[in-house]
Specification:
The chain is α/β, with parallel strands linked by helices and about 120 residues long. It has one domain: Response regulator (Rossmann fold, 3-Layer(aba) Sandwich), CATH 3.40.50. Helix content is about 45%, strand content about 20%. It is built from five helices and six strands; from the N terminus they run βαβαβαβαβαβ. A six-stranded parallel β-sheet has the order 2-1-3-4-5-6, with helices on both faces. Helix 2 runs parallel beside helix 3 and helix 3 runs parallel beside helix 4. It starts with a strand and ends with a strand.
């Protein structure tokens, strides 16, 4: 499965690439660092799962996701954040996200990506 990672913290993004890329059935096809970049590049990349930080400088993950879903209603967006905040969860659900997980749960990231790929919704 093709995965794109979007996080404005480059260290986190590269760590995620290492973790996800070590899985046989996962291919990280791009690592981007802003909402603006993924909105511009999504149509070229067309990942099976988009793993994206919610809070980023400039365009937020929520705003980027909303823009992507306007053009690609079948996009599978899994949000990754340090914030366990009901408002973020509500916003993610309202705009059509397939999941929301906390960054600190490194062991849960790959299983969550696989679940979203299979059509499940993951929140935790």
């Amino acid at each position: 499965m093709k995965v794109v990672i979007v996080d404005d913290d480059k260290l986190v993004a590269m760590s995620l690439k290492t973790i996800i890329g070590s899985e046989e059935d996962c291919e990280v096809v791009a690592v981007l660092n802003s909402g603006e970049e993924i909105v511009r590049e999504y149509g070229k990349l067309l990942p099976d799962v988009l793993l994206m930080d919610i809070r980023m400088q400039g365009m937020t993950g929520i705003d980027a996701g909303r823009e992507i879903l306007k053009e690609h209603s079948d996009a599978k967006i899994l949000y990754l954040t340090t914030f366990n905040d009901g408002e973020y969860i509500q916003n993610a659900l309202m705009m059509g996200a397939k999941g929301y997980i906390i960054k600190q749960d490194f062991e849960g990231i790959v299983p969550s990506i696989k679940a979203v790929y299979l059509g499940q919704t993951v929140f935790g």
